[in-house]
Every structure is written in structure tokens, then in C-alpha cells.
Amino acid sequence: MNAPDRYERFVVPEGTKKVSYERDTKIVNAGSFTIEREDHTIGNILRMQLHRDPNVLFAGYKLPHPLQYKIIVRVHTANLSTPTQAYTQAINDLDKELENLKKAFEDEKIRYEERPKQGY
Amino acid sequence: MDRPASGVSYQRFPRVRIRELKDDYAKFELRDTDASMANALRRVMIAEVPTVAIDLVEIEVNSSVLNDEFIAHRLGLIPLTSAAAMNMRFSRDCDACDGDGSCEYCSVEFHLAARATDSDQTLEVTSNDLRSTDPKVCPVDQARAYQHALGGSEPYDTATAADQRGILIVKLRRGQELRLRAIARKGIGKDHAKWSPAATVTFMYEPEIRINEELMETLTLDEKQGLVESSPTKVFTIDPNTQQVVVEDAEAYTYDDEVIKKAEAMGKPGLIEINAKEDSFIFTVETTGAITAYELIMNAITVLRQKLDAVHLQDDDGDLGELGAHLVGG
């Protein structure tokens, strides 16, 4: 049978880069990131986080085809920043947010389990 | 527009409140973040948190009415306790073996042998007949029965007699036999749904309901009753003492707009206003039992962080590349 392996949907093939950046040929401070083997999960949080940065003039992502397991994130920034800076910052911010969320959950679990003892 | 220099952080600090937490069920509120984050967490919980499930079956004897692949498929769908899955290796990138399931880092072996002896009773082969070679990984109902036998002091004990019977695999008639060797491996829901630890993961926006009390005063009791009943779910009720329309359960609202249409039909637009709070979510998480609901949430956060880490720009195509490109003539 010629069915492709199921893991091809999420394992980056050897010799392929996970992320590649290509500058726009006409506009300064614009370009697109091609992220291999990712989907809406990463694409959408990245786009929304980029929107929080006032230096970002445009941020959007697309999944070009359901059978091409990659997304393209396009970023255009003002001249105080660059797409790569904005992109890196967005990822770092999201990572810190999740680190915080994890801590918040751990604390909340302790609080939740203490509650019955206090006679709520 | 004033723009700050780059390198400023736009990080958020989400808040969490757990409403209910059981072994396989959790309900919690997530605030101060946006729908993209809520949805990313939901998607990761369903499709990318790893568990262990039977993936390879070698059938030695099968004289049952079900064919080999049918039984192999049913075995795959049995949820196995997967607390150790996060620290296991995927068989495809395990270097201790060739992915044939003979190594402790990436696989667990199971054996099953059942034969209906010469009685007239049909023999039910269930998940309880599976023998694991690793006590950490076994069918979830076996694990629960074991807990029960140890003293059964689970805080969220919901085991009933029906749970003790195990998951039915096949029924054998007199003389029929089933004997096999199965290998369980780590995997994710994206690969095959049998690896998904989530039974359901949903989130809803928290509704914000405002009643225009001044306008409400102009309604008769019958009209109020009609308004309350226009909602297909029990969102509103009438206070028996004051005869005022009050919100009974805001979260029962399904964003169906029925009460708003009713208010308009009564000629009182603006009587009730309902908005979805865009930074506040109510999550419901149910697991298959492979991992606990709390583990599922924590693992989802860990997995999402790993994914974000993987999409970092590499040094060779990072800022230097950008700068270099500009120097050449950007």
C-alpha cells in the first residue's frame, strides 16, 4: 500500500528546518516564517501574541493546504523592530505566560485541596 | 502613534480558579488571557498529550468469532494507565531498540490467554485478562480495582460493581481460544485517537447578563413569566418574594438569543443584554482515565511549551541573518 506514515504529520523530516524565514522582496521589515509540522495550535497563539505588539503592523498565518503539514506566519513591523525580533519576543512572552499558568495551576490546586479542611 | 522600542514584553498573567477536581474530571475558570490560548490548550489536551496504548499485536491462537485485526483494534482502544508516558520515549526515536517493542524505555508487553472450557457458559474475555509486564502500565479498570483492594480510600471514589467487570474484548464459546502477545507504545492523539487521553475538553466564554431593571418594572408578572420561559435553558427565574426576574444560572445560557428576541417581540428592546466576556473561559475536562484530569492539564501546558520552544528561530537564521541581509542591500 502507498499510504504515507501517519507520523509524517508531526515529525519533521530529516534535512528539513523546523522554522525558516524569508524576507519580503518589496517591503522593508516584512517577511514570512515557514514553520514545518505545526498547525492552528501554534499559528493562532503566535498571531494573537504578535497583535499585542504595537510595533507589529501586520501579523497573520495560514495553513496553505491540509495535506501540507506546515504553516506560514507573515509579519510586517514598524521600523523600530524587525519581524525576527517581534517573532522571538512573541514566543518568549507566550512561554512566560505558560510558565505562569503552570504555577497558577499548582497554587490553585493546593488552595482547592485545602478548602474542605477550612470548613467551606 | 507612539511605538515603544522592540524588546518590550507583552506577557499576560492568566488567573485560574478550580471549581471541581476529580480523578477524571475537572472544571475550572481561566481568566486574563484570550481565546487563542484557551483553544491552544484545548487542542493540545485532545491531540498532543502522550499516553500509552496497545499498538502491535501478535496473535498466537484465535478461534473466536472475531477476526484478528478486529481484536487488535479493540485492544488498541483500551485505555492504559499512562502516568509514566511523559517520560517514556517514542518507539520511532528510541535508540535502545529498533522499535520492535523489546525495550523498557519505549514499550510495555502484554499477554493474554483465554480458553472457554467445556462448560455451556460463554466466556467473556475482558481487559482484566490482560497481563502486563510493567505494573505501572495496565488497563485503567484493573488499576482502579487494585486501588480498591488496597483499601479503597480514593478521595474521588466512584467505582461501582459495573466497573469491576473490565472492558469486554470478545466472547468465547465452548472450545474457542484466544492467545496473543501485545505491545503497548507511547503515542499522541494526532497519530491515532486511541492515544488521546481526553474524553471531552470544552470551553465556553463566561456570559455577562445585564437586566434593565427600570424597563423590567413595566412588565406584568405574566409577561415576566413568559420571558423566563422563552429561554430554552433555565437561565432566569422569578424571585418568589420580590417577583423580580433574576439570573439563576448565567452559565446555562447557550448564546441562543431567544430571550433577547422575546424582549424585542414584547416591544422592550434592551430589556436584557448578554455579552460574552472575551478574556474569561470556563473549561470542562474529562479524561479516559489514562491520566488524571490534573495531569492532563499540566502535561498540556508542558507540551505546549515544548512546541513553542521548538519553533524558536535557530541562530543561523535569526537576527544576524536579518542584519546580514540588510548589509548586503535590504
TrEMBL record, chain A:
CDD domains assigned: RNAP_II_RPB11 (cd06926)
Top-rank lineage group of the source organism: Eukaryota
GO molecular function: DNA binding; DNA-directed RNA polymerase activity; protein dimerization activity
InterPro entries from the UniProt entry: RBP11, RBP11-like_dimer, RNA_pol_Rpb11_13-16kDa_CS, Rpo11-like
Domain DNA-directed RNA polymerase RBP11-like dimerisation: 32-103
Annotated keywords: Coiled coil
Gene Ontology biological process terms in this record: transcription by RNA polymerase II
Coiled-coil region(s): 84-115
A GO cellular component annotation in the UniProt record: RNA polymerase II, core complex
PANTHER family, per database record: DNA-DIRECTED RNA POLYMERASE I,II,III, DNA-DIRECTED RNA POLYMERASE II SUBUNIT RPB11
HAMAP family (UniProt xref): RNApol_arch_Rpo11 (MF_00261)
Protein name (record): DNA-directed RNA polymerase RBP11-like dimerisation domain-containing protein
UniProtKB/TrEMBL annotation, chain B:
PANTHER family, per database record: DNA-DIRECTED RNA POLYMERASE, DNA-DIRECTED RNA POLYMERASE II SUBUNIT RPB3
High-level lineage: Eukaryota, Viridiplantae, Streptophyta, Embryophyta, Tracheophyta
InterPro entries reported in the protein's UniProt record: DNA-dir_RNA_pol_30-40kDasu_CS, DNA-dir_RNA_pol_insert, DNA-dir_RNA_pol_RpoA/D/Rpb3, RNAP_Rpo3/Rpb3/RPAC1, Rpo3/RPB3_RNA_Pol_subunit
The keyword Ion transport appears for this protein: no
Pfam families for the chain: RNA_pol_A_bac, RNA_pol_L
GO terms of molecular function: DNA binding; DNA-directed RNA polymerase activity; protein dimerization activity
GO CC, alphabetical: RNA polymerase II, core complex; RNA polymerase IV complex; RNA polymerase V complex
Keyword Cell inner membrane on entry: no
Name under which the protein is recorded: DNA-directed RNA polymerase RpoA/D/Rpb3-type domain-containing protein
HAMAP family, per the entry: RNApol_arch_Rpo3
Domain DNA-directed RNA polymerase RpoA/D/Rpb3-type: residue ranges: 25-314
Compartments, record wording: Nucleus
UniProt similarity note: Belongs to the archaeal Rpo3/eukaryotic RPB3 RNA polymerase subunit family.
Keywords in alphabetical order: Acetylation, Nucleus, Transcription
Protein's GO biological process: transcription by RNA polymerase II
The species this protein was found in: Zizania palustris
